[in-house]
Amino acid sequence: MSDDFAAVFEAPVDTTPDLDELVVATMTWHFSPATGSPYWVGRAPGLGFDPLTDVRTYDDLRLFDAVPVDWSSIPAQTLIPRGCAGRPGRFGVYESGGATGAPKRIVDATSRRRNIEFQNLHLDEQGFPTGDGQAGWLHIGPTGPHIMAKNIGNLSELRGFTPFFVDLDPRWVRRCIANGREDESKLYVDHILDQVKDVLLSQDIRAVSTTPRVLESIVARHDVYKVLGDKVRGVIWGGTSMDAETLRLLEQEAFPEATFAGAYGNTMMGMAPQRTRREGDASPCVFRPFFPYTVMEVVDPVETDRPVGVDERGRVKITSLTREFFMPPTAERDMVTRRAPAAGYPGIEVSDVRPAEVAAKAVIEGVY
User: Fold this and answer.
1) Which helix (H) or strand (E) holds 122?
2) Distance CA 154, CA 141 (A)
3) In this predicted model, what pLDDT tens digit does every residue of 318-345 receive, in sequence order?
């Protein structure tokens, strides 16, 4: 069975397998004792339905709506499918930032690299620079236990850059802000920028990936901003929200020589790159998930089984369908605007990402 579904699980990233075929392949793989993960195979008898026979289409995944899953407490090893033993790639365990509670955990070997290859295609289309093996890419953001370091390592390799990292602990910044220790969080950001300056002064850095908050902090520190502005020709931003005017200021005034590209995502959903702008877009940055491996819905914030219409605000709902990881439809924290898909894209595109209030408590974005 291990090779029966290669056509859907490992299809070229510039093609789109049939969604329902991918759903069937995912159910068969993850719930069959020979190939499935111990977690899902173990839960199958108590689900009240049989994923191998009752789930044949994407709509059938609604059967999982009544199945609670606590991604923060599952022993991570039990999420690794037995059928992946001996396949390419080494599994790692990756955590969310914990903005809404205890960190959630996923496992991944090669599936997220395919997601990054999808992102890379969009960067090619947008004229994002390449390094030709000579220049450096600086990521200013979380490394372990977060998956961003792996993502940036893959993306910099695909684009011919040598990766450099300045680690940032988003949990500490949010804790400082939540406890009213703004001065401490600012000291921490300065500590990060001191390290950024050191890398910029000593290395040939041509691309940067970081958050809008960090970019704004860099602009406010002339000693760092001057070096970055002189060197960098590509900027990927993500991790926290950014309004249209701030994006315009960063693109057109702060870093006019650099190509900007947004990226929306998190540990559970993967990466949704900015698609190329088109005349008439209602937002300067529209995000496109890696459909059908990541299926994004935009639903009513309260009635999460009710989709909203195009150009309406709603809460993000995510499904993950890969050989290595299965997540049934799950409401995430973010609010977005649903956009009409462009150029024949079969999934849902979104813009204007903002964290929603979760459990009557405002989410603190911090710097990531």
Assistant:
1) helix 111-125
2) 15
3) 999 999 999 999 999 899 999 999 989 9
Give the CA dihedral 115, 265, 329, 281, nearest 10 degrees: -90
Q: Which of 363, 218, 354 is nearest to 298 (CA)?
A: 354
Tell me, what DSSP letter sits at residue 135?
Answer: S
DSSP line for 36-99: S-HHHHHHGGGSSS-HHHH--SSGGGGGGGG----TTTS-GGGGS-GGGTTSSS--EEEE---T
pLDDT tens digits, one per residue of 235-268: 999 988 899 999 999 999 999 999 999 999 999 9
Residue 13: which of 122, 88, 151 has the closest Cα? Answer: 122
**Given CA atoms 335, 142, 126, 201 in this order, what sign does their dihedral have?**
positive
- The model carries a pTM of 0.94
Over residues 126-134, mean pLDDT:
93
The dihedrals phi and psi of 259, each to the nearest 5 degrees, come to -85, 125
The answer to whether 351 and 283 have CB atoms below 8 angstroms apart is: yes
What is the token pair recorded at 265? 């995502």
Task: Report whether pLDDT(181) > 90.
Answer: no
Residue 173 contacts residue 181 (beta carbons within 8 Å): no
Q: Calculate the CA 54 to chain-centre distance.
A: 30
- Tell me the per-residue pLDDT of 39-98, one tens digit each, with 9 for 90 and over: 999 999 999 999 999 999 999 999 999 999 999 999 999 999 999 999 989 999 999 987
- Reported as a pLDDT band with limits 50, 70 and 90, residue 359 is very low
Average pLDDT, the chain: 93
